[in-house]
């Protein structure tokens, strides 16, 4: 909070909250308590801009401005306490695709491990899937929507070009939350998860919804059998909550990117001529109307990238966590191709019974794939409290990242 003088008031040191039923390990841990908002007087108190959920012509009253429920304490740890997911109603099988393009169930399954995928149809929207997944995560976490402070919508295919997080949080009922989109394609959820933990540690945020959602079916060339067989639509969410530092569930992470690989996997913008004929003599005006082309992918190069970089990324995250690969209870990779998943597991010497995979039923759901698979595993009783999960996302950009997390 910045005072009228332009100087930020000092932060006060306070002990960190104790975990329920236990102390702080015999140490006096010190966090930082942000001071209360500075009271305004005079004309400034009557008109505050962009500071409340109820806006009238860009000006709101001071009484309408949201007030912090509790002081913000930085330096906290993070834990995952709830998850949820949602998928479209329409299921498209490999046999269905064989009626559209020259392919077969055997050909697709042998090369990818995919047999079915869910696709948005009718009046279904990605926003609706995101809302459903978020509500399920809140229900499992037993956290009220009003107690959510931040919503991160990890997507490359929002219903609105300007982003969808604000609409999602409004429909979920997160009246006190701020939200924004994160675009990193198939790496989006991992990057969103790590971002959430940094907001908790450095910003004193308490409850964060991280939603991974994508509808890549809208950007697929359904006559191209090299790409149309891969992608499906879905949404998945987790609730990340602040905890004491000694309970931190993010044990280690690694994120990387290489723009030189963009040529191997992309969905670039394209342009069409303007319908206007009169330009008043201004050359090259108006600009051409922008749209997006279909997904283009060099499958062989993407495969090589993934089987090389994903294990390395997990190893770096494990090194930061100070853990050996043998400590991993579950390997959870972005669900892109079963051969990639198997190759990474083999490199890390992780047995197949410790690998989470639902690729066969949903295909590549981009940013939704990791939280969708996690939600199914948790609800099936496979992932239990205290389990260590090595999760890794990778894809367009090129971007990739890994996180070693403990399920609460």
UniProtKB/TrEMBL annotation:
<protein>
    <recommendedName>
        <fullName>beta-ketoacyl-[acyl-carrier-protein] synthase III</fullName>
        <ecNumber>2.3.1.180</ecNumber>
    </recommendedName>
</protein>
<comment type="similarity">
    <text>Belongs to the thiolase-like superfamily. FabH family.</text>
</comment>
<keyword id="KW-0443">Lipid metabolism</keyword>
<keyword id="KW-0275">Fatty acid biosynthesis</keyword>
<keyword id="KW-0808">Transferase</keyword>
<dbReference type="Pfam" id="PF08541">
    <property type="entry name" value="ACP_syn_III_C"/>
</dbReference>
<dbReference type="InterPro" id="IPR016039">
    <property type="entry name" value="Thiolase-like"/>
</dbReference>
<comment type="function">
    <text>Catalyzes the condensation reaction of fatty acid synthesis by the addition to an acyl acceptor of two carbons from malonyl-ACP. KAS III catalyzes the first condensation reaction which initiates fatty acid synthesis and may therefore play a role in governing the total rate of fatty acid production. Possesses both acetoacetyl-ACP synthase and acetyl transacylase activities.</text>
</comment>
<feature type="domain" description="Beta-ketoacyl-[acyl-carrier-protein] synthase III N-terminal">
    <location>
        <begin position="180"/>
        <end position="259"/>
    </location>
</feature>
<dbReference type="GO" id="GO:0033818">
    <property type="term" value="F:beta-ketoacyl-acyl-carrier-protein synthase III activity"/>
</dbReference>
<keyword id="KW-0276">Fatty acid metabolism</keyword>
<keyword id="KW-0444">Lipid biosynthesis</keyword>
<dbReference type="GO" id="GO:0006633">
    <property type="term" value="P:fatty acid biosynthetic process"/>
</dbReference>
<dbReference type="InterPro" id="IPR004655">
    <property type="entry name" value="FabH"/>
</dbReference>
<dbReference type="InterPro" id="IPR013747">
    <property type="entry name" value="ACP_syn_III_C"/>
</dbReference>
<dbReference type="Pfam" id="PF08545">
    <property type="entry name" value="ACP_syn_III"/>
</dbReference>
<dbReference type="GO" id="GO:0009507">
    <property type="term" value="C:chloroplast"/>
</dbReference>
<feature type="domain" description="Beta-ketoacyl-[acyl-carrier-protein] synthase III C-terminal">
    <location>
        <begin position="318"/>
        <end position="407"/>
    </location>
</feature>
<dbReference type="InterPro" id="IPR013751">
    <property type="entry name" value="ACP_syn_III_N"/>
</dbReference>
<comment type="pathway">
    <text>Lipid metabolism; fatty acid biosynthesis.</text>
</comment>
<dbReference type="GO" id="GO:0004315">
    <property type="term" value="F:3-oxoacyl-[acyl-carrier-protein] synthase activity"/>
</dbReference>
């Amino acid at each position: 909070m910045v005072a009228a003088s332009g100087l930020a008031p000092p932060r006060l040191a306070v002990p960190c909250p104790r975990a329920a039923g236990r102390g702080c390990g015999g140490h006096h841990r010190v966090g930082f308590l942000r001071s209360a908002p500075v009271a305004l007087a005079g004309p400034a108190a009557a008109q505050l801009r962009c500071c409340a959920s109820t806006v009238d012509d860009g000006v709101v009253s001071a009484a309408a401005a949201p007030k912090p429920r509790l002081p913000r304490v930085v330096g906290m740890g993070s834990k995952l306490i709830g998850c949820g997911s949602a998928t479209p109603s329409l299921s498209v099988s490999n046999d269905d695709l064989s009626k559209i393009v020259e392919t077969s169930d055997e050909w697709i399954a042998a090369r990818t491990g995919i047999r079915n995928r869910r696709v948005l149809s009718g009046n279904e929207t990605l926003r609706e899937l995101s809302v459903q997944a978020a509500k399920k995560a809140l229900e499992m976490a037993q956290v009220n929507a009003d107690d959510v402070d931040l919503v991160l919508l990890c997507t490359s295919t929002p219903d609105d070009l300007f982003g969808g997080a604000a609409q999602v949080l409004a429909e979920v009922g997160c009246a006190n939350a701020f939200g924004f989109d994160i675009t990193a394609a198939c790496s989006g959820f991992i990057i969103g998860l790590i971002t959430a933990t940094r907001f908790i540690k450095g910003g004193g945020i308490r409850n964060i919804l991280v939603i991974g959602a994508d509808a890549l079916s809208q950007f697929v060339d359904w006559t191209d059998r090299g790409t149309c067989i891969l992608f499906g639509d879905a949404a998945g969410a987790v609730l990340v909550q602040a905890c004491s530092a000694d309970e931190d569930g993010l044990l280690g992470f690694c994120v990387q990117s290489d723009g030189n690989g963009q040529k191997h996997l992309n969905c670039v913008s394209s342009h069409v001529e303007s319908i206007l004929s009169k330009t008043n003599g201004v050359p090259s005006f108006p600009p051409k109307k922008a749209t997006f082309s279909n997904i283009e992918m060099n499958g062989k190069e993407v495969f090589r990238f993934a089987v090389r970089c994903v294990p390395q990324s997990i190893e770096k995250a494990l090194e930061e966590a100070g853990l050996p690969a043998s400590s991993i209870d579950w390997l959870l990779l972005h669900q892109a191709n079963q051969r990639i998943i198997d190759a990474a597991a083999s490199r890390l010497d992780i047995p197949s019974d410790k690998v989470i995979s639902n690729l066969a039923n949903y295909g590549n759901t981009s940013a939704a794939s990791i939280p969708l698979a996690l939600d199914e595993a948790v609800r099936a009783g496979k992932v239990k409290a205290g389990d260590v999960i090595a999760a890794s996302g990778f894809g367009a950009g090129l971007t990739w990242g890994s996180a070693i997390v403990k399920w609460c």
